[in-house]
Amino acid sequence: MERIYVFKRFERFWHWAQALLIIGMMITGFEVHGSYSLLGFERAVDWHATMAWALITLWVFAIFWHFTTGEWRQYIPTTDKMVAMVRYYLTGIFTDAPHPFRQTTLRKHNPLQRIAYLFVKLVINPLLWISGLLYLFYASWAGWGLGWLQLEWVALAHTAGAFLMLIFFIVHVYLATAGHTPTAHIKAMVTGWEEVEGESEQQHAATGA
To answer: Of 5, 25, 6, which Cα lies nearest the Cα of 17?
Structure first.
């Protein structure tokens, strides 16, 4: 195994801070939705709004960081090894097949990860962001010329975004355990150092030598 420094300090902070805020917002959000009672409706609303502003602030800093460092290029879609990755996740992961993608500092995400993360950044996050702000400033709609907008539409959009984020979260956690050990990827996101197979190791695994 070869150790490479993949995830920078801010990247790790942004990842874990976002994860904690999203978990907190899902817990409070589904309580506000009436799924269960844990904190109480008013407290859940207050905590949900507070964490929402914190998450928006974090997203703004993260967007700035991605564009100033050039890390936004990590999310450009590619079809290179796309089929191999689909085959690996469908069957190879269960048969101890060699991983078709070799992670590097310049290529942190495999083709399927790029598409998934891009979908989160361009669809799920804006959907939650816009619908959440509209929900929060419902009393100002008339002054903004949005009197035609229905609260039910905004609520449905926000709930749909929440379920999409929940699905992504579950899949993300599952695949985070799919490294050469169940905690390898999680450890890398804590330390920044990822253990990857060398070129010779990948060739031996692929040929069964």
So the answer is: 25
- Whether the CA torsion 55, 60, 61, 63 is positive or negative: it is positive
Domain range for residue 80? Answer: 2-207
Q: State the CATH number of the domain containing residue 73.
A: 1.20.950.20
> Distance between CA 185 and CA 192 in Å, rounded?
10
Instruction: For tokens 């917002």, name the residue.
Output: 25
Phi-psi sector, 70: left (phi>0), alpha (psi -120 to 50), beta: left
- Count of domains forming the chain: 1
For helices 151-176 and 9-32, angle between their N-to-C axes, nearest 10 degrees: 130
Interval 114-136: pLDDT, tens: 999 999 989 999 999 999 999 88
- At 133-167, the pLDDT tens digits run 998 899 899 889 888 889 999 999 999 999 999 99
Which letter does DSSP use for residue 147 in this model?
T
**Nearest Cα to Cα of residue 106 among 6, 1, 199:** 6
